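Handout, section 3.2

Students often ask what a structure token actually looks like in practice. Rather than define it abstractly, here is a full record for Ankyrin repeat domain 29. The first block is the sequence as you would receive it.
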Amino acid sequence: MSFKKETPLANAVFWAARKGNLALLQLLLNSGRVDADCRDSYGTTALMVASYSGHYECVKELIMQGADINYQRETGSTALFFASQQGHHDVVKLLFEFGASTEFQTKVCNRADSRNSFILQDGATPLFLAAQEGHVTVIRQLLSSGAKVNQTREDGTAPLWMAAQMGHGEVVKVLLLRGADRDADRQDGSTALFKAALKGHSGVIEELLKFSPSLGLLKNGSTALHAAVLSGNLQSVLLLLGANADPTLPNKNNELPADLTKNDRILKVLCPKILNGHS
């Protein structure tokens, strides 16, 4: 039997799970008057709350009291999502020891949730959330436990793309070494390299270039060099030119990368390449 969070005892369980008050949590669960899987109107369980907060002993107690590790709240999230999002690698390890699955994705849900900490509702996975937040240790755990490195959100965004956007160079490196598709594009046609270039994340660009990603025209009608020029980051431009990105290749609007900037330092490195001919 499940209890709504709004009942006093269930509310106390949630409070104990959130605060890490193990003694109170044990007292409540051992009373026999409240279920370990009590949940609120969104389907959030005490195990999810404890996992999000990183309270290892509370997570363990709830599991031992019979909490459903793979229960999905309304948005599709499980306890593993919350532990992964917050980078609680010890909790992630514990959840896997008791059978947590990496197969779930968040669902599109039209119901508004005022608790913004409880997460994406668009086909994200625990790996995607960990990549977004830069939690390298958790990412290694997830991949070792069967998470699919190229599984995307509904808009085609892969963990690698998200890590590149956020500037998480070490995450990008780990994902690439574990088989991430360097040229995977999302629905807007952008790749991880394009996004890293647009954001000026030179360290991420360096990691991606080690795996020879496409430097040509992408499905979005532009190139990574165009994106780097738009970012105004000279180092990003130099890295791409050093990898033989073509400054004479126009975008879908027939613009060269040099047409997109008035930055003298960037123009100085682009124009000689154009005048001398790209080789």
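Discussion prompt for tutorial groups: The CA atoms of residues 42 and 74 lie 5 Å apart. How would you have guessed this from the sequence alone?
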